[in-house]
Specification:
May play a role in stationary phase survival. The protein contains 10 helices and 13 strands. By secondary structure, the chain is an alpha/beta fold. The longest helix is centred in the C-terminal third of the chain and has 20 residues. The structure holds 1-O-phosphono-alpha-D-glucopyranose.
Length: 278
């Protein structure tokens, strides 16, 4: 029912320098696929086949990745090497891709607002591809959220419990428990200082947003780190209507950090790549 998914991919990836000096961090390979392809496959799996990227300068290779490469196709046609193209060919067959540039880095909320004309007046998913989510043998995280949306028809954020000393890295929610793993959001703080977090339930990079978020974002003042924060806009939605927080089933790897990236690589090698190779 939700057909659109937004991918903010304008960030610099400074933690991976020098690898990201002339290459977008989203194109770093986790085993044999660029990080962003995992996120796009997740969106498509959830029925969100209309994929919109918020890009920036130096990110052209993302657009090239989600397009045909005629020369390569010609070169490998009829050889065993075509098998290597199976996953990306499937993505290209199933998805439609749009791109717009965020000219200034003013935060995640600003990036999402930049996507307004690609999204229009529709509910939509947001995937931060730095967070690689897997749920082997079960529904993908975005598919789980899309299912919940059918029931609640309001914005939904994915959450997980994190250790107290990690909460300062995340948007953190407080809410009323509706049932196991599901909360109605009452408070939300972006990257709270130690001791000021309302809970240890951290938002990870999966959102479903209702389109009224755009008007809210337009008037949201810069918050934490001087950036327009989606967390602040969502808090307004929660106060005036409803936002749900959902403890997803599956595993999430923080590929925005070197440690998390290596963990994801090891996991995907053992549990996805090796299986695919038979
Ligand atoms: C963003 C959000 C934050 C969320 C996090 C999840 O922060 O602002 O609320 O917890 O993604 O990865 P970033 O990691 O981009 O600084």
């Amino acid at each position: 029912m939700i057909s659109k998914c937004l991918f903010p991919v304008a960030g610099y990836g400074t933690r991976f320098l020098p690898a990201t000096k002339s290459m977008p961090k989203e194109m770093l390979p986790v085993v044999n696929k660029p990080l962003v392809q995992y996120g796009v496959e997740e969106a498509i799996d959830a029925g969100m086949t209309d994929i919109s990227f918020i890009t920036g300068r130096g990110k052209r290779s993302i657009a090239d990745h989600f397009d045909i490469s005629y020369e390569l196709e010609h070169q490998i046609k009829g050889t065993g090497k075509e098998d290597y193209m199976t996953s990306i060919r499937r993505v290209l067959d199933d998805g439609v891709f749009s791109f717009t540039r965020q000219r200034e880095m003013k935060g995640l909320g600003h990036a999402i607002l930049t996507g307004e004309n690609m999204i229009g007046d529709n509910p939509f998913g947001v995937i931060l591809s730095d967070d690689l989510c897997v749920n082997e043998g079960g529904e993908s995280v975005m598919a789980q959220m899309a299912e919940l949306y059918k029931q609640f028809r309001c914005s939904i954020v994915a959450i997980m419990e994190v250790p107290e000393d990690q909460v300062h890295k995340y948007g953190v929610i407080a809410g009323t428990s509706m049932k196991e793993g599901l909360y109605r959001v009452e408070d939300m703080v972006e990257k709270p200082a130690q001791g000021e977090a309302p809970s240890n339930l951290a938002i990870i990079g999966r959102y479903i947003l209702t389109p009224d978020i755009f008007d809210i974002l337009r008037r949201t003042e810069p918050g934490k780190n001087g950036e327009i924060q989606i967390t602040d806009a969502l808090l307004e939605q929660a106060k005036n209507g409803c936002v749900m927080a959902y403890k997803f089933e599956g595993q999430r790897f923080d590929c925005g950090s070197v440690d998390g990236f290596v963990e994801a690589t090891n996991y995907c090698y053992e549990n996805i790549y090796k299986k695919e190779q038979g």
